[in-house]
């Protein structure tokens, strides 16, 4: 299968970044890719909301192919919208400004731990994922190689949950913000949000998959337009960087290794050949998400989520028009130029 189409579809792997409610942007990207119908997927790596999208895509694809995946993604995000409290989030708001309810919740989480705020560990997201996804069937019949990232709370090490390990707790661990949710315990080990260790992890798509094309769907800006000065802005930026630095380091290493392989002429090894065979592609949500308030990541508001979905669909449609035919033939983005520092 290496380097070839799967049936009539061009095969690629997906790396899906997390970002709370901003993950609805990725929903839109995936919806457009599925509607286009030219592509199938071999591996999907995701953290936090990226992991939610990955499992929704896989579950729906298992049940009904491309259209089933579109329905499952819509069902999941509309379910997320049902979890929102109308009293905390107004139906219409300026997402460039901190929404009052969400901002209040995030401020409160700075002073009180989830063990104080929510001693019973009530998590509506658990009910949603358990009702939406058939984890037992996914363990046995998942149509893709899934890599759900979580961070070990006591070591900081990355833990990747693969197909045969998919359970609701693995998905909840990947999206466990420790300031807002109690630690998720799996087999006696504590886990937090996967974005701390990888957002998302790219290496498993190289190590365990054959597809040469890898599409990166990013929610965090690769470069910010201005330096924050206010106290809240500074704190938000530090959180953003904490959630994206592991990914940046990994991509910088991959780009450097590819460059070294070319410069040294070491092209005979399996690793070098694999690295140089990869064709990277990128859909970046910076234009739609870059000016949104950090606290909008916890907004479960249907109008807002649909707005992000539509932005993701539009970005993907533009990418498809410009680069869809590149899949299977050539890269559409130069990762060396993006991720290696200028010299």
TrEMBL record:
Alphabetical GO biological process terms: lipid catabolic process
Residues spanned by motif DGA/G: 193-195
InterPro entries, A to Z: Acyl_Trfase/lysoPLipase, NTE, PNPLA_dom
Residues covered by the PNPLA domain: 14-206
Gene3D superfamilies attached to this UniProt entry: Cytosolic phospholipase A2 catalytic domain (3.40.1090.10)
Catalytic residues (positions): 48, 193
Iron is among the record's keywords: no
Annotated protein name in UniProt: Esterase
């Amino acid at each position: 299968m290496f380097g070839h189409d799967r049936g009539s579809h061009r095969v690629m792997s997906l790396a899906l970044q997390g970002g709370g409610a901003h993950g609805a942007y990725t929903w839109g990207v995936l919806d457009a890719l599925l509607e286009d119908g030219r592509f199938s997927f071999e591996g999907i790596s995701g953290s936090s909301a990226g992991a939610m999208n990955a499992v929704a895509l896989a579950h729906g694809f298992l049940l009904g192919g491309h259209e089933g995946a579109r329905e499952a993604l819509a069902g999941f995000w509309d379910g997320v919208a049902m979890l929102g409290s109308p009293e905390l989030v107004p139906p219409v708001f300026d997402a460039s400004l901190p929404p009052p309810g969400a901002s209040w919740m995030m401020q409160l989480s700075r002073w009180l731990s989830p063990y104080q705020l929510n001693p019973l560990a009530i998590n509506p997201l658990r009910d949603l994922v358990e009702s939406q996804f058939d984890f037992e069937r996914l363990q046995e019949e998942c149509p893709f190689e899934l890599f759900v990232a979580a961070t070990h709370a006591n070591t900081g090490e990355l833990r990747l949950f693969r197909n045969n390990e998919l359970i609701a707790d693995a998905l909840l661990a990947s999206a466990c913000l420790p300031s807002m949710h109690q630690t998720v315990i799996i087999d006696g080990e504590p886990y937090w949000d996967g974005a701390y260790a990888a957002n998302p992890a790219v290496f498993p798509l190289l190590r365990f998959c054959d597809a040469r094309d890898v599409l990166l769907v990013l929610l965090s800006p690769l470069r910010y337009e201005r330096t924050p000065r206010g106290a809240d802005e500074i704190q938000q930026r530090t959180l953003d960087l904490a959630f994206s630095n592991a990914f940046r380091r990994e991509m910088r290493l991959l780009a450097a290794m590819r460059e070294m392989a070319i410069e040294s002429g070491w092209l005979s090894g399996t690793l070098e050949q694999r690295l140089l065979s990869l064709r990277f592609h990128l859909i970046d949500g910076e234009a739609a998400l870059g000016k949104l308030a950090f606290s909008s990541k916890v907004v479960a508001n249907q109008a807002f989520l649909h707005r992000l979905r539509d932005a993701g669909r539009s970005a993907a449609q533009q990418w498809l028009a410009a680069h869809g035919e590149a899949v299977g033939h050539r890269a559409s983005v130069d990762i060396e130029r993006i991720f290696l520092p200028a010299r």
